[in-house]
């Protein structure tokens, strides 16, 4: 065998090792898979040239590893991108700032879009609601202890009850023609239990929504002055 020829092929295995080591040392999942993919590419070249005849078994093995990495890279990119989302979904995604696009897609698979055909009481004070809601179009009337205020689209309804697993703190009425999205509480809980990251992201989202509502607060009564 021509040693100079073997030495040239050896460069590829060294490059493959370099990219594998760099990949294993990175904490970024996408970076890891990209570096391993490049490493597999150099291994394939090495196995092709290192011997008088290509080492097809080793080439096939490296090709399968590379193909798996390509699939997972596509999955990761889709998780981080809104590519393929419809305009209404992209608009709704603005109400989920703590979620990445992939997490948002998983949450929305459990959702049901509703258009109120009449004034609909979606939440009753003192009663634990079966669903969690997000207003998407039109205001809703929030009533608590005989005081009322209107809340607009982009607000969650029932998130306090969901977080404390207790009754609703107010009654909310969606007027005829308003639109909202609803999730069954049990479905959302199951989803959160399957993913710690998603659970943290949704909890942060609900807490942020509650804090925003508290900042607005209730309108003062004239005799409160």
Could you name the key traits of this structure?
225 residues; alpha+beta; four-stranded antiparallel β-sheet; 17% strand; elongated; disordered N terminus
How would you portray this structure in words?
The chain has 225 residues and is of the alpha+beta class. It is built from eight helices and eight strands. The longest helix has 24 residues. The chain is elongated and about 85 Å long.
* Number of helical regions: 8
Structural class: alpha+beta
Sketch the major β-sheet. Answer: 4 strands, antiparallel
DSSP, total strands: 8
Poorly predicted runs of 5 or more residues: 1-5
Strand content: 15-25%
Helix and strand string, N-terminal first?
HHHHHEEEEEEHEEHH
Brief digest:
The chain is built from eight helices and eight strands. With 225 residues, the protein is an alpha+beta fold.
Give a topology summary.
Layout: H1 3-25, H2 29-49, H3 56-79, H4 87-93, H5 101-108, E1 111-115, E2 120-123, E3 131-137, E4 140-144, E5 147-151, E6 156-157, H6 159-164, E7 171-174, E8 179-184, H7 185-194, H8 196-216
Antiparallel strand pairs: 1-8, 2-7, 3-6, 3-8, 4-5, 4-7
